[in-house]
Amino acid sequence: MSCSKSSRISKFESLFVEDQEKSLLEPADWGSFREEAHRALDIALDFARDRAKAPVWAPLPEYARNIEEGLPRSGAPLTTVVDEIQQRVLPHTLGNTHPRFWGWVNGSGTPSGIVSQLLNGAINANVGGRDHSPIYIERQLIRWMCELFDYPLDAGGIVCTGTSTATLYGLAVARHRTLGDDVRQLGNQDTRLVAYCSAQAHVSVSKAIELMGLGSDALRAIPVQDDFAINAHALAEQIVADRAAGLQPFAVISSVGSVNTGAIDDLQAINAICAEHHCWHHVDGAFGALIALSDTMRPRLAGIEQADSIAFDFHKWMHVPYSSACLLVRDREEHLATFATAHAYLKGENRGVAGGAPWPNDFGIDLSRGFSALGPWMLLKEMGSQRLGAAIERNCRQAAWLGEQVDAHPALERLAPVSLNIVCFRFVTGSIGADQLNRLNRHLVVELQCRGIAVPSFTRLNGNTAIRVCIANHRTTRADLAALIEAVPLLGEELLRAGGEPAAFELQ
Ligand SMILES: *Cc1c(COP(=O)(O)O)cnc(C)c1O
Questions:
Q1: Alpha-carbon gap, residue 236 to 74, rounded angstroms
Q2: Is residue 3 part of a domain?
Q3: From the alpha carbon of 164, which atom of ligand 1 is closest?
Q4: Pfam families from the entry (predicted)?
């Protein structure tokens, strides 16, 4: 087969000549495209405004699961594609923008988040680096976050996809400080690094330790107290014992808002332990750290300003469109030393388009990265930190109120203190044993979800299955919570009557 230059050119020539002035991917008629785009915006706004009228969640119909249709080889008008989204996706969303969604920890979005996503699409910034305005929006956002947590204003920081990534990055910096620059070339070698967190820590902490090649055994789960916060004495003792056994303690990960119950570890005690034992203090503040937005709640974070790194999400309790999170590292130089590279083809002169060093890419691993700083930046500008803090305070007051309702109800039992925005409780009845009660409560949660009444999730606390209500939702009203308190005992009795044999409580 010949592949001469002339035959290659002749093969594509007609294509170039015919269309050389027009993009193949832009609308032929901007006027009608604009109309179609405005219609899509209206659909988005209607959906946001009316989401509460539909059930919070419903089991998916078959057509919404159908992924059989093959690769579209010729396209369809935008309107047709938007219609498909309207039919196939919008009626079958998770429900996290609905006032009765309290499962796991999810942000509920805001209408102006839709606008930020629109502008973001138009800008289409690659915020890995180079010298352009979006870089400075991200830097300003990071500075604001330093201000919020009383960090040095020139601390290191990066916007990431989630707290999972932010924690991985934070622990990588911790390891770099412990092992020095050699770690970049030689890896972990035969060091015996160990890290510590509470038994209530999020699974992302273990994943980070695994990914760093340390193995999950290198993460010690320290017992918690009755309030589900870490037992600081047990932590200190474990570190001393590990050191005596020849291991190398290098990091403690505290939970600020533990995922199960919202417990906040004693940051000052952990700071002191870390200082004594030369450990890095990384804060997993995925949702809880943002109580810093509330002046009345901020004192509960005392000591966070001394932590070495803080990971938290904008997409949870700040309701920024997914996904957007942040890592702050007190020692900017250490942060840079962990990730920065000096590839000749990327840099050389801090001037022109390739200027603006150091780049966000010098603080993490993504080179091409989206402009996820725009959402939180716009929301903070529009709402101000106080209003966002007030929404967080309201959720905590609602949780306290819900806890009181549980305590006042003879068929309900609270399973953990309400320390933040999470209420863990269960339906109780004297007529069945412990295992059956656990199955009944799991079944109850699934029924609440499937009937579209509300979406709590379940968890296990001290061996008991709990109905877990995490209120990180600015749309929730007290009436929504009252409806839950009414539904749970009724549903519990109904399932009990229908159940008969314990097997009936098995989850499908
Ligand atoms: C959600 C969560 C994480 C993980 O954050 P992502 O943004 O989902 O990656 C970590 N820790 C806690 C306490 C969380 O609630």
A1: 64
A2: no
A3: 9
A4: Pyridoxal_deC
